[in-house]
Specification:
The complex is a heterodimer. Chain A is built from eleven helices and ten strands. Chain A is globular and about 65 Å long. Chain A is α/β, with parallel strands linked by helices. In chain A, helix 2 crosses helix 8 and helix 5 crosses helix 11. In chain A, strand 1 and strand 2 form a beta hairpin. The longest helix of chain A is centred in the middle third of the chain and has 19 residues. In chain B, helix 1 packs across helix 2. Chain B is an alpha+beta fold. Chain B has one domain: Beta-grasp domain (Ubiquitin-like (UB roll)), CATH 3.10.20.30. Classes of the chains: A alpha/beta, B alpha+beta. At the A-B interface, helix 2 and helix 8 of A face strand 5 and strand 7 of B.
Chain lengths: 309, 95
């Protein structure tokens, strides 16, 4: 028998939220989702309404849902979209096209950094270096740096990323078991700026599951990329997801419990985990824990492999 | 009995519809039976999207029945009731 929406009690429910024990019709689900994003922004004090918020948009479902939901929750907020084109044949053009479609639909200013044009390299070039098939970690370093740079140039106060509950709980779990305390404390929902002139970083989707983001895009007609990155094996992420999936089977609130317990633990850890002293990178001038930052080291490595170094 | 099917992304392009209402004379209608009916209606492109080369439904597709994942019910053998909404959720990796 069809189930009536648990909110409006008039339309048929099409989305079930296990942790909230709630079945909703598409319209009430979209409202529920936007309220959840707004709730996280306000509970964690992520930004003020007069801030300029930059959203790091990859074209994937999470960041697409984030940009769309922020626009619905805060129609008067100054939001800009930031996108990195990684120069991956077919895939990057598809991602950028989806981001352009989304930002046009939402009337949001878009800033694009194309690594082929700006740096003269492609992400796939990392396969010619010691990274070989493991380009994801190098790609992460490049994106983190470029988003910081884009945010600074766009005059952004706060940089919002689409990290979802599954991502954060999975990485927290992993960091805990490997004792990577310095990395665990960096999973806070709000991170202060690296230095003066840089944006603070926030994760408004920290309490929202990957599946909810997908359903928000599907039922909200939000454009997002539909093809996978050819270099993503996803093995590590999948393994973490499987562990959490097993533990969540009889307890749909398990991921939230993981998140909440770690969020209680992080302030205690921050008192004992030593922060690295930051210096200016000799190449780009960004704050870095060594003379040359990880981004510049990686770019130099690729250029050397390409004979451009 | 009648079942509504929701299509998204590629399936929406393939069928040219956001939703389709299917009528069944029998009462014993499962997710598998709905897919068989759609297979007859949309032919090869639908088969390529939903089934693997061995004729099995691709594991990464999600089926929601009134919002609940078929995997938490009786999988593809979950019985549908009159008025139920079946959503076919595309595979999407990464964020």
């Amino acid at each position: 028998m069809p189930v009536l929406c648990g909110k409006c009690h008039s339309a048929n429910a099409e989305v079930h939220i296990p942790y909230a024990k709630l079945s909703l019709c598409p319209k009430c689900f979209l409202d529920f989702y936007v309220r959840r994003v707004k709730g996280a922004v306000e509970d964690f004090g992520m930004f003020k309404e007069d801030d300029t918020v930059g959203v790091a948009v990859s074209g994937g479902k999470d960041s697409a849902a984030l940009l769309h939901a922020l626009r619905q929750a805060y129609p008067n907020l100054k939001v800009v979209a930031l996108h990195v084109n990684l120069g991956i044949p077919k895939y990057s053009a598809h991602c950028q096209a989806k981001v352009e479609e989304l930002t046009k639909m939402l009337d949001v200013e878009l800033h694009v950094f194309n690594i082929v044009k700006e740096l003269g390299i492609r992400i796939s070039d990392f396969r010619k270096t010691v990274f070989r098939k493991k380009v994801c970690s190098a790609c992460g370093t490049v994106k983190r740096h470029v988003f910081e740079d884009l945010a600074r140039k766009a005059g952004v106060d706060v940089l919002a990323t689409g990290h979802n509950l599954d991502d954060v709980a999975g990485v927290m779990f992993n960091n805990f078991f490997y004792g990577r305390w310095d990395q665990l404390v960096r999973l806070k929902p709000v991170l202060p700026p690296l230095a003066e002139g840089f944006a603070s970083k926030v994760k408004p989707l920290i309490r929202i599951s990957e599946n909810e983001n997908l359903l928000y895009c599907l039922y909200g007609d939000v454009p997002f990329r539909e093809i996978d990155c050819p270099y993503s094996s996803g093995t590590g992420v999948r393994k973490r997801a499987e562990i959490l999936e097993i533990l969540s089977r009889d307890n749909p609130y398990f991921r939230h419990q993981v998140l909440n317990r770690f969020l209680e633990l992080i302030p205690l850890l921050e008192n004992v985990v030593s922060k690295p002293a930051l210096v200016k990178c000799q190449v780009c001038g960004f704050p870095s824990s060594s003379d040359v930052c990880a981004f510049c080291k990686r770019v130099a490595l690729v250029k050397k492999a390409l004979g451009k170094g | 009995m009648q079942v509504s099917v929701r299509f998204f992304t590629s399936l929406r392009e393939l069928t040219g519809k956001r939703e389709e209402k299917l009528e069944f004379s029998e009462e014993d209608v499962t997710v598998n039976k709905v897919l068989e009916r759609l297979k007859e209606r949309y032919g090869k492109p639908f088969v390529a999207y939903v089934y693997d080369k061995d004729g099995k439904v691709k594991g990464f597709l999600q089926f929601l029945i009134n919002g609940r994942s078929a995997s938490t019910l009786n999988g593809l053998e979950t019985r549908l009731k009159n008025g139920d909404v079946l959503a076919i959720i595309p595979p999407v990796g990464g964020g």
